[in-house]
Specification:
The chain is mostly beta strands. Helices cover 6% and strands 42% of the residues. It has a 6-stranded mixed beta barrel with strand order 1-2-7-4-6-5. The mean pLDDT is 89.
């Protein structure tokens, strides 16, 4: 078993894409599969590891910055890696059965990267 906080967010783009954020304590079960960049670091307070499909559609690369709005917080992070997750082998939204990576994606980050000391 592995504890993590999963929250919905909106990325700062004109079309307000939905990004599911995973704030993790470990990366041992259903691991983020890195394709580009640095290995996921559970102690990194400034990094985010982003869905490769979403990044490709949006023209994002390792080293770029991305911000998310969630639960009244603005979360601004540097993209440290791009990859896939077994949690999202097939990822669709509530409005479409086909994945539209211009409108949806996911991201992983350390629970220490949350902008408040008390994670809800």
């Amino acid at each position: 078993m592995e504890r993590q906080l999963v929250v919905d967010s909106i990325a700062n783009f004109e079309n307000d894409p939905e990004i599911t954020l995973h704030l993790i304590e470990n990366n041992t079960i259903s691991k983020f599969y890195l394709l580009e960049g640095k290995e996921l670091d559970i102690n990194d307070r400034d990094g985010v590891w982003l869905d490769k499909n979403f990044a490709d559609v949006k023209g994002l690369k390792v080293g770029d910055r991305i911000s998310f709005e969630s639960e009244g917080y603005t979360i601004d992070k540097e993209i440290k890696g791009l990859g896939y997750s077994p949690e999202y082998v097939y990822h669709s939204s509530s409005y479409s059965v086909m994945p539209d990576y211009n409108k949806i994606g996911f991201a992983y980050m350390s629970n220490k990267a949350f902008p408040d000391d008390n994670i809800p």
